Amino acid sequence: MATPAQNYALQGKQLVKVGQLLPGFSKADDRNLPKVDLYMIVDFFQELRHPAMKHVKMQRSAGVDYGTDTVGYVQLRRADGICEVVGRITPEHKVSSKPYRVVVKIDETSEKVVDAKCMDCAAAEGYLLENAPEGTTGLIFDHLAFKPHKGEELGIDRLLQDFLKDQIGEPDCDQFLLYCKQKMTDELCDLINKGTVLQAKSPLWHAVRFSRVTASKAYDAAHSSGNINSSLVMSVIGAARLKDTDAMKRGRKLEHSVLNEVRSQLGKINPTGIFLTPRYPVMGASPDGITEDGQSIAEVKCPTTQKNFRKYVKNDGCVAAKHLAQVQMLMHIANRKQAYFCVAHPDFELTKNVKIVKVMYDPVYSEDLMLKCQNFWEKTVFLELCRVYSN
């Protein structure tokens, strides 16, 4: 199998390492990648059909067994119906070589692959020179026309890059956290919260979550062994494939219906974006909703079986430890004193049954949890990002 691709992206003609999102781009994962089906691929290659392209390598590289480990850091941006995806891929026939820079543009309105380029293969330079408009030879990307959201200034990648510019010697995490606190004004945090109400459908939401410990990872972070190469660290910095569980898929499908059922019992629940706090700048929290009076948050879960249901709510009716940590962090960062933990029964589609557990904010537990999560970030994520950026 090909070796894992290193995490690179392309900015102008310069390579940037993992974490350095391009202006206007957000981290790509299974939730926000554009739809591409077989028919779109066939149409694209039919339009580019050329005798020189009919060779075995292309057929092998297009196979379903071409491993996901060959794909490096991927990011995307959407504008005017076009989704532009940038990534790194290790060619199967050159596993020891540098990963190739790959760019794909997809028209999501007409469901058409508009363009796909490998910037490092032997034919790439000739292709670009041949197809570049007059007077633009050598220009690969033009990001100047895209104006990023002001909230992207609080992305960990941007904050850390700016911080490291003036650093001499070993970077100090305490100094970085202080730097973040100075940059994270209440006004900017509020702007981000309002600008990310669509959550996973919002590029800004992905940008500011990148390399932050979010509430869903709070329990694991607080109980981490501190292994810098762990899957948890890799998932935080975006270097691990998102595991899309059956419960997550069911949650996306049913969340709106479950919230409607919860509304019938609790009253209006409004959507909300991600919350950030200057006190803990490397944390983030995205509850599923806020009650109309603004006093409580709502978090929805949709387990698929009765056995899994007990992983969320125990037999005594209390929230299980892992999800209690999530809810407490949500309340802590969102500055709310009460939460409704809403778990749809496995037969929700038929019965509309939802178990709603009221959880009160525990300041002692939450403060200890936040300190443990920050310690995890300092000992692992910070060191890994500094190592990457320093190279």
Automatic annotation (TrEMBL):
InterPro entries (UniProt xref): PDDEXK-like_dom_sf, Restrct_endonuc-II-like, YqaJ_viral_recombinase
UniProt xrefs under Pfam families: YqaJ
Domain YqaJ viral recombinase residue range list: 205-336
Family annotation (Gene3D superfamilies): 3.90.320.10
GO biological process: DNA repair
Coiled coil: none
Alphabetized PANTHER family for the sequence: RE54151P
Protein name listed in UniProt: YqaJ viral recombinase domain-containing protein
Organism whose genome encodes this protein: Petrolisthes cinctipes
